[in-house]
Amino acid sequence: MRRLMWQRNRRRNAATLAAHQREHEWLTNVDLKMMRRALNLARAAGLCGEIPVAAIVYRGEEIISEAANDREASNDPAGHAELVALRLAGAKLGRWRLHDCRLAVTLEPCPMCAGAIVNSRLQALVFGASDPKGGAVGSLYHIPQDARLNHRLPCAAGVYKAEASGLLKGFFAQRRAFKSR
Ligand SMILES: [Zn+2]
């Protein structure tokens, strides 16, 4: 039974990768694996009352840092998952240039995080759900691919987007239900 499920998951992951590679040939199995890990982290953050968004900085298959949104716990307006993960990665590697690292995040980065992503010289960005109200990687702006800035990087949107947006929708529906009680 477990083996069957494992085989089914493996087939599904391979199909997901093949579909995304048609648009972004640089995507690998590792990027998908990191997104799945970020989704689990985001889910855990949601259970702690944070908006469920999480990010992972990785170099090849090595995880350099990971973080979930922690604005409520830290009272930090900049406590977005991407920003926290980038700071941790810089501290761990002992440098602010992260040109050999990629970042996977469950939600489209906002202008603040997209700016930090450009400034950290990341190699590539992979994200899940789009954010039509605040996204800066295709929705409202396209900061990581703005030719006026001094660094550009490839971005893959919509990786596990159904899972990522499902997490957010579930969280907000639950919060509304709680408030109206
Ligand atoms: Zn942000």
Describe the protein in words.
The chain is of the alpha/beta class and 181 residues long. Helix content is 46%, strand content 15%. The chain is built from six helices and five strands, in the order ααββααβαββα. It has helices at residues 2-21, 29-47, 71-74, 81-93, 111-119, 161-179; strands at 54-59, 62-68, 102-107, 124-129, 155-156. The chain has a five-stranded mixed sheet. Helix 5 links the parallel strand 3 and strand 4 (124-129). Helix 2 packs parallel to helix 6 (161-179). The longest helix is centred in the N-terminal third of the chain and has 20 residues, at 2-21. The protein starts with a helix and ends with a helix. Residues 80, 82, 109-110, 112-113 line the site of zinc ion.
Give structural attributes.
181 residues, alpha/beta, five-stranded mixed sheet, 6 helices, 46% helix, globular, binds zinc ion
